[in-house]
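Now produce a polypeptide, keeping tokens residue-aligned:
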Amino acid sequence: MMLTPRPYQKRAIDASIQWMKKNTESCVLDLSMSAGKSIIAAFIAHEMHKISGGKKVLVLCPNATLVQQNAEKYAMLSDEYSIYSASISKSLRYPVVFATPLSFVSVVDDTNGEFCCVVVDEGDQITETIKTIIATLRNKNPLLRVCAMTGTPYRTGEGWIAEMDVDGSIIDEVTKPYYKKIVERVTPRELIELGYATPPNVVNVSEKYDTSNLALTSGGTFRQVDIDHAFVGKGTKTAMVVEDIVNHANAINARGVMLFGATIEHCKEIMQSLPAHNSGIINGEMGDKHNKRVIQQFRDQKIRYLVNVNMATVGFSCDHVDIIAILRATESSRLYQQILGRGMRLDPHKKEFLLLDYTDNIQNLFPSGDVFSPEITAYGNKPSQKMDIVCPDCNYVNSFSLRPNPDNKMIDQQGYFLTLDGERETLDTKGTFHPAHYGRRCLHVKELGKNNFERCGHFWEFKECHKCKHKNDIAARKCESCRELLIDYNDKITVEFANFNNDLSQIQPDTIVRMSKRATMSKSGNPMFKVFFKTPYRDFVAFFS
């Protein structure tokens, strides 16, 4: 059977190949759940091997299941591939290698620059192991290309994983993006409209757990004690929730129902209310053999209900899932969308799948009510009202957070406050206009090829270099153009005075009010004095040989 990509898959493949032909900077494909990342990875690997003149391509997958899944798709293009994963096989013989990071990192130092490209499946999982592999391969081959694929190109609290969006703009909600640009996007809505994914039917459930005590820690997770308080030991509540799930399953004659619990103990409580002959539970305590057997029973439709915490999220593939039941609070929209992906797979016997959420996840993670439109923020970025701001230089439309506007002043299209006369409001006697938003510089970037990018030079707020008059970001310490230190005159005097005071070879103006000395030895064994000085302003120590 020959593998043929769907139109949207070909679009993603072409976009990544075109980017990698021109740039060594890394790229990202933002691919919805059920977009067929395995097929896209297979074509990218096959094409990069060809256009590199026969060099090797590495496809990194987070687990052995995805390694096997990706390799099987590639086998439909070529039988010249290897698998390097501890639980499957360890081979580097063929030009395309499918591997798990933890297995491949042990041999990455033995490579000799033969890899031209790394494709990272589930590329939002930017672990230190993956960084080590890419850094090592890039050190051996500076022209290495990197392409990540993910359905959730963001991380909890850190924001987006790429610096630039598909349209060439700088992404605001980031901290330290690992990748350069998102080169193509395939959305869940697009797949559903094209008939390539199953839509969710979000059901208003009558039962809900009380999650009001749950609050994210600074690390972006819930405290275990709070999770236990909200979900564990709620016998009557859990029994009523499970009864509601079973009623929905019976009403549509569901073939596959996946239940996501909060903890292992919670999952055990869920199992107590499900029909034992028709249900199974998987978790890390039960062992690999048990989990594989239960998953196979679910795939073969020998059981209807599969209970888990988060084992069946990434890489779990089962087409006949009719109901996703969420009995847990999820810390991130990323995990939530991975859970949704388990129901979105196409099946000839279903037109939709039911989404039953017995918590406040949708309200908390998707304020718009659209489970495909999460609110993405980086740590320190507080949600605020945004406005489309047109750049006066390049006409690019930026989206910036607005400043507080208690007086309800008018704002023009280019983002400045207006006076009652309709004139732009000024901040100072120099005539600096008052921006109504926190955006400092236009986000538009032109791609010039060969790793060359030119960002629009328009600033709403800037710091002018006193030496060359170049406009710099207000947070810059050195001039982007001439590298002059960007501090004001008073600050400069303060720095110079501090440097002068720290240089004991200079004559100092302080009065010495006390001095003491102690004989000691230098590191080289020579006799010396350690002298302690005290002035009205400071204490310091000097050494005399």
Q: What stands out?
A: Residues 238 and 270 are 6 Å apart (CA to CA). The chain has 13 helices and 26 strands. The first strand starts at residue 27 and ends at 31.
